[in-house]
Design brief:
The protein has helices spanning 79-88, 107-120, 143-149, 164-176, 188-191, 200-205, 213-229, 241-252, 264-267, 289-300, 316-319, 336-347, 353-360, 362-368; strands at 7-17, 22-31, 34-36, 48-51, 56-59, 61-66, 91-96, 124-129, 153-154, 180-183, 196-197, 209-210, 233-235, 257-261, 306-307, 383-393, 412-422, 425-429. It is α/β, with parallel strands linked by helices. The strands form three sheets. Strands 1, 2, 3, 4, 5, 16, 17 and 18 form an eight-stranded mixed β-sheet that branches. It has an eight-stranded parallel β-sheet with strand order 6-7-8-9-10-13-14-15, with helices on both faces. The protein binds zinc ion. Residues 157-158, 184, 236-237 line the site of zinc ion (ZN).
Length: 430
C-alpha cells in the first residue's frame, strides 16, 4: 500500500517563476505539500482542482521586513495576527524584526519566537536577530549563537549602529557565520529630532526636518564596510535619491550591497503631512517628488532588487497624539502588493509583472539563503495566486491586523492576491 496522496492541481494559470525563468500558461501540481512533476498524479485518484484562468500563479511572496511585535507588544500585533495579515496580502513568508521587548538578541528569544510561530502562524516566520545587545548599539549580540538558533539575518532595525568600528566587527562576524547584515540607515546626529523630510513642507509646517543626507551618509558607510569586509550588507527601506545613486555606483563596482524600497515611499510625498495626520509619519519619512522619482528609477533599472513593507503596527491611542510625539510606522502587509502593482506596473510601467514577482520571491530568498521563492519541482508548495487587474478598495476595518495605522484606508487599487497557499494548504482566500 502506498502512502496517502494529497494532491491539488492549479489549472490554466500564468505560471511566473523568475528563479527558473519561467513565464507560461499551464497547470501546477501540488502533491503532499510540495510542487510536483505533472506526471506524478497519473494513475492516482484525480487531484482537487483550482481554476486559475486569467490569474497568475507565483511562488509564495516573501516580505523580509516585518514587525510582528511579539514578544512584548501583543496589543499592537501578535505573531498569529501578523501572519494572518501577511496571508491576506499574499505573503507566505515573512522575516520578523528583532526590536521586540525583550529584543531578539539571544538564542532563547529566537526559540520563543520560532516555537510560537510554529504553533500559531499560518505563514512561515523567519527570524532576524539583533546586531547589538538590546539594539543599544554598544556591544555585539552573540552572533554565533544567534546563527545556531536559526536567525536568517542580523539587523538593529528601528535603530542604527552609529559606531562604525562596531559595525565593521559585526560584518566580520556575520561573514564568518554566513549571515547578511541588514541596516536601518540613520545618522542620529544629523537627523536629530527630525520627524518629517527636511524640505519645503517641514519649513511650512514648522516641524523638525529629517534630511535625506541622514540616510545617505549611513548608506555610504555601509558600502565602504561591505567593500572592506567583502560581505553583503542590505540597506532597509531606502527613501532618498542619493541612496539610490550611491547604491547604483557601488553595485556597478561589484560591492555586495543591496537595497529595498517600501510602497509608502513611492505612493506618497511629504506634502501628505500637511494635515499633521500621524498616519503619514514613518521612519525614514515620506520625501519629495524628486526622491519618489529616483526610487522608481532605481527599481526600474535594477539598482533596487527587493521590495518590502516595513509593516509596523501601532495602537490607535499611540498615534492619536501630536505629530512630533507619535511613533513612526504604518501597516503594510495587506496593501504592498496592490500598491506596487498599481504604481510600478500599471501606472508608471517601471517594471513588468515577472520582475515584480522576482523582487518579492527569488531576490529576497537568494539574499538570505531561504529555501523558498521558487516553483521548482520538489520545492515547498508556497504559492500566491494573483489577479493583477482586480480593482479593490482597502478597508482597514476588515484587516486581521490588531492595529489600523495605515494611510491607505479607502484607496482604490488594481491587483491583489486572491489565494495564498503555504505548503500546499490554502491559508487565505478572497
Ligand atoms: Zn527601520
Amino acid at each position: 500500500m502506498s502512502d496517502p496522496v494529497n494532491a491539488t492541481i492549479l489549472r490554466n494559470g500564468r505560471i511566473i517563476d523568475p528563479a527558473n525563468a519561467r513565464d507560461e500558461v499551464g497547470d501546477l501540481l501540488i502533491v503532499n505539500g510540495c510542487v510536483a512533476k505533472e506526471s506524478a498524479s497519473s494513475g492516482r485518484q484525480s487531484p482537487a482542482e483550482i481554476d486559475c484562468t486569467g490569474l497568475v500563479i507565483a511562488p509564495g511572496l516573501i516580505d523580509l521586513h516585518v514587525h510582528l511585535r511579539e514578544p512584548g507588544q501583543s496589543a499592537k500585533e501578535t505573531i498569529a495576527s501578523g501572519a494572518r495579515a501577511a496571508a491576506a496580502g499574499g505573503f507566505t513568508s515573512v522575516v520578523c524584526m528583532p526590536n521586540t521587548q525583550p529584543a531578539i538578541d539571544s538564542p532563547s528569544v529566537v526559540s520563543w519566537v520560532q516555537e510560537k510561530a510554529a504553533a500559531e502562524a499560518c505563514v512561515n516566520v523567519f527570524v532576524a536577530g539583533a546586531i547589538t545587545k538590546a539594539l543599544a548599539g554598544e556591544e555585539l549580540a552573540p552572533i554565533g549563537s544567534l546563527k545556531k538558533a536559526g536567525v536568517v539575518a542580523l539587523t538593529d532595525d528601528g535603530h542604527c549602529v552609529q559606531n562604525h568600528e562596531l559595525m565593521r566587527r559585526a560584518l566580520e562576524y556575520a561573514r564568518m557565520f554566513g549571515l547578511v547584515v541588514m541596516d536601518h540607515c540613520q545618522d542620529y546626529n544629523l537627523v536629530g529630532k527630525g520627524v518629517m523630510h527636511e524640505g519645503y513642507w517641514s519649513t511650512v509646517l514648522g516641524l523638525p526636518g529629517w534630511p535625506a543626507a541622514g540616510e545617505e551618509i549611513i548608506v555610504q558607510r555601509n558600502i565602504l564596510l561591505a567593500e572592506l569586509c567583502d560581505t553583503p550588507v542590505h540597506c532597509q527601506h531606502l527613501s532618498s535619491a542619493g541612496s539610490v545613486r550611491l547604491l547604483r555606483e557601488a553595485r556597478a563596482r561589484g560591492v555586495p550591497i543591496t537595497g529595498e524600497v517600501c510602497p509608502h515611499h513611492i505612493a506618497l510625498t511629504d506634502e501628505a503631512v500637511r494635515g499633521f495626520d500621524t498616519r503619514f509619519k514613518m521612519n525614514p519619512p515620506l520625501r519629495s517628488a524628486e526622491h519618489v522619482d529616483a526610487l522608481i528609477g532605481g527599481i526600474a533599472d535594477g539598482t533596487i532588487t527587493i521590495l518590502a513593507s516595513d509593516h509596523a503596527p501601532h495602537s490607535g491611542f499611540e498615534k492619536e497624539v501630536e505629530f512630533d510625539q507619535a511613533p513612526f510606522g504604518i501597516l503594510g502587509l495587506e496593501t504592498q502588493l496592490g500598491l506596487f502593482l498599481e504604481l510600478l506596473v500599471h501606472q508608471h510601467r517601471a517594471i513588468d509583472l515577472p520582475r515584480l514577482v522576482q523582487l518579492y520571491t527569488e531576490n529576497p530568498a537568494k539574499l538570505l539563503g531561504l529555501n523558498r521563492g521558487t516553483l521548482s519541482v520538489g520545492a515547498a508548495a508556497d504559492i500566491t495566486i494573483i489577479d493583477p487587474h482586480l480593482a479593490w478598495t482597502f478597508d482597514r476595518e476588515a484587516s486581521p491586523s490588531r492595529s489600523c495605522n495605515t494611510p491607505f484606508h479607502g484607496w482604490l487599487l488594481r491587483g491583489r492576491a486572491v489565494r495564498t497557499i503555504v505548503a500546499g494548504e490554502t491559508v487565505w482566500t478572497l
